[in-house]
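Worked example 3 (structure in, sequence out).
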């Protein structure tokens, strides 16, 4: 979303991004709960979630930093991601977004809507 001259519009944007950040954190918490209950998620799916989240964080100027840290703390070990290599990972994603198509939302919308999982393929 653009930055407007009108602060009311900018406040709406900030509130929207905060809500989306909270939804990301809820999805992460739900995924961790599911994992503890025996659900399985492939490392490939978890890696794609990480890329998508990092890409959105980069494109919004850091509005999803809380969700990024939550992801790393809760799910990062599944894909070798830790606070030690967080900056390297986000820099790689940020550079990828400017030189190639988006990393996420590659599947057609219809396939996303009919998926059996909210957060990705379970394997």
């Amino acid at each position: 979303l653009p930055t407007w001259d009108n602060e009311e519009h900018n406040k709406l944007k900030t509130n929207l991004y905060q809500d989306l950040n909270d939804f990301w954190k809820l999805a992460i918490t739900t995924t961790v709960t599911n994992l503890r209950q025996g659900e399985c998620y492939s490392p490939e799916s978890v890696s794609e979630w990480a890329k998508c989240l990092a890409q959105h964080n980069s494109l919004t100027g850091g509005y999803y930093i809380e969700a990024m840290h939550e992801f790393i703390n809760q799910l990062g070990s599944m894909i070798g991601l830790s606070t030690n290599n967080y900056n390297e990972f986000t820099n790689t994603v940020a550079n990828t977004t400017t030189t190639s198509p988006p990393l996420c939302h590659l599947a057609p919308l219809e396939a996303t809507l009919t998926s059996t999982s909210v957060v990705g393929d379970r394997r």
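Notes: The CA atoms of residues 55 and 97 lie 7 Å apart. The chain has five helices and no strands.
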